[in-house]
Amino acid sequence: MQTEHCAPAPRAETGAYLPSPLSLLLLPPRLLFATLDSGAGVIRRTFDGSYEKYDAALCKVCNGVHREACCDIPETSCPVPCHIRWRGCVGNSFRYELQITNRTRVEREFTLTPEPFPVTGETVTVSPDKKTLGPDESATVVVSFTNPEAMAGGCYQSRIKLVGAYEEHILVSLEVRARQCCQCHIEQGEMPKKVRAHHWYHHFQCTQDCFPPAGDRP
Known about the structure:
The chain is of the alpha+beta class. It has helices at 21-47, 50-56, and strands at 83-88, 93-101, 108-114, 125-127, 130-133, 138-146, 154-163, 167-176, 193-197, 205-209. Strands 1-8-7-3-5 form a 5-stranded mixed sheet, with no helix packed on it. It has a 3-stranded antiparallel sheet with strand order 2-6-4, with no helix packed on it.
């Protein structure tokens, strides 16, 4: 019995394939059909609830799909401390109001103790420095200070310790400007004039007094 062997298959050419003119002619309608078919699939999956199941499986952290449950560890931040910022010259007085509220369910005593500014030993004034508050009760505390001569030309930091349900600090920043930065020398003689040019087509200038005249004095 003779056995016939199939002829070996022709090897595929490795060169670039050039589509036929008919394939090129049918390319635009094929692309249009593929777009319509894909759009129909999106519409079908929207109304049959397929997307709802997919969206429910999305991770709320990375918006990806995991085989295992995605664990999101909750985080919280500490509250930002209250910061009092003052800037002025020697002799300037400052005033700042603090509103303190007891959010616990029991009556508590709140005390405020100011710390002195470094080197100078000066402290701000807190009034009142002690207050007893019931649940959800509030009180207004006034913090005040007057810049002394000895603190001219310096920047200072201090704190006010507040003790109630727990202990926290209120920051105080003070900048006292130097004497020469808080002075202005004014000289008066003849009335200064302001000369202002009109538009180019006027070809002249306009002169006016910089200040109103003092008028007749008794």
